[in-house]
Amino acid sequence: MNTKNYLKDISDIKTMMSRSSRFMSLSGLSGVLAGVYALIGATIAYFQIKDFKFLIYNETDWISDNPYSSLFFNLVTIALIVLAAAIATGFFLTLRKAKKQNEKIWNPVSKRLLANFALPLVSGGLFCIVLIQYDIAGLVAPATLIFYGLSLVNASKFTIGDIKYLGIANIIIGLIATQFVGYGLYFWALGFGIFHIIYGTILYNKYDRPSQSEENIN
Amino acid sequence: MKNIIQHINKAFDHRVRLGIMSILMVNDFADFNMLKELLGATDGNIASHTKALEKEAYISIEKSFINRKPNTRYIATASGREAFTKHIEALEKLINNND
């Protein structure tokens, strides 16, 4: 009996099943960097809020006629810059990894991955706008964490399965954060910053480590 | 030992056919180009192997038009899934027996 051929058959089957249903080129390093950006953003936001409180308590001259809207504008700008930087880095590093693994970045699987990731995320984004509309801004941070976590769990079926646990972790701290309104920034820094860095490092060590891949360029 | 070998299905005894079945086991359907890209095979290759699998009634074929371009979808049938599962089990047993 030719065992070697049968072994190869089994490994071919496994490879084809995962290649055709999971997009494996997601970069772990981009997770780490997204976490770092989030922490930098959270630190800047922290000082913005501190300055704002200082202004309120000391009743000094307002920099603008409406300090609330100016602070709000600054915080939204920081959030958008962090988001844009994280997406750009993620896209670039994933593209690079896909090229190395000979996987097309825009294939039926990555489309499915994106659609499944986007559905809870976009719903969550719209829901947060509604929260702001009704002046329940304190629940925005918990809601973003919960919906982001749901997006990760939903997307985990179509990529590296491990991101499911990052999703569950984010849902849990999102729910905890609902009981600590006013501390949203800290939960944000934990969920988007520290969790990303931890999980990105785990994924990087598990899948991307140059020593484990055939080529030694990374 | 003979019993096990009986379950090794000749219909799956080729890299491309094995690949087509593996892909269709985990996807609701796959179209021609998806199979071609994933398996790195030629048009003629995919066409002849899908035909062979269709003949065994292991896969079914749906033809339609997307933006006026013909599109062929391949779907694993219930009997195809059953046969492939048995094939995998037989492969695993063979490997374990030989260890």
Automatic annotation (TrEMBL), chain A:
Keywords: Membrane, Transmembrane, Transmembrane helix. The chain crosses the membrane at residues 23-49, 69-93, 113-132, 138-156, 163-180. This is Uncharacterized protein. It comes from Leeuwenhoekiella polynyae.
From TrEMBL, chain B:
It holds the Pfam family HTH_34. Residues 16-95 form the Winged helix DNA-binding domain. InterPro entries: WH-like_DNA-bd_sf, WH_DNA-bd_dom, WH_DNA-bd_sf. SUPFAM superfamilies: Winged helix' DNA-binding domain (SSF46785). It comes from the Bacteria. PANTHER family: BSL7504 PROTEIN (PTHR37318). This is Transcriptional regulator. It comes from Leeuwenhoekiella polynyae. The lineage of its organism: Bacteria, Pseudomonadati, Bacteroidota, Flavobacteriia, Flavobacteriales.
